[in-house]
Amino acid sequence: MKVQRGFLVGAFGMVLVAGGLIAPPPGYSQRAGADNRQDARDVKQQGREDARAAQADCKAGDEKTRAECRKEKRDAKDGAKDAAKDGQ
User: Fold this and answer.
1) What HEC string does 13-40 produce?
2) Distance CA 47, CA 10 (A)
3) Integer distance in angstroms from the first to the last C-alpha of the chain?
4) Distance CA 65, CA 58 (A)
5) Over the stretch 46-75, which tens digit does the pLDDT of each residue have?
């Protein structure tokens, strides 16, 4: 019985060691990707805020139509999306 128990303890120990070697360390696995995604979100959010401000300024003036103001806002948001993609 002692031989069987010793074998099981040894096998369990080897499984734990092998699992520790195969699994990546938790601090390094996802951090860079998460930072890149957060940076892209921040760039896009800033682009949205800039687009809102540009549209409000456009509406305040009388030199452009509503459609032209919407196009200006859309272009500003698209530019922010492109900037976020380039940053990744």
Assistant:
1) HHHHHHHHHHCCCHHHHCHHHHHHHHHH
2) 58
3) 59
4) 9
5) 999 999 998 888 888 888 888 998 998 899
Report whether 66 contacts 45 (CB < 8 A).
Answer: no
| Structure tokens that stand for 15 in this block | 């499984």
- Dist. CA 32–CA 27, nearest whole Å: 10
The pLDDT, as a whole number, for residue 82 is: 86
In angstroms, the CA 6 to CA 29 distance is 35
17: Cα separation from own chain's centroid: 33
- Contact present, 82 and 53 (Cβ < 8 Å): no
pTM (2 d.p.)? 0.56
**pLDDT tens digit sequence for 24-47:** 565 555 677 788 888 889 999 999
C-beta neighbour count of 55 within 10 angstroms: 19
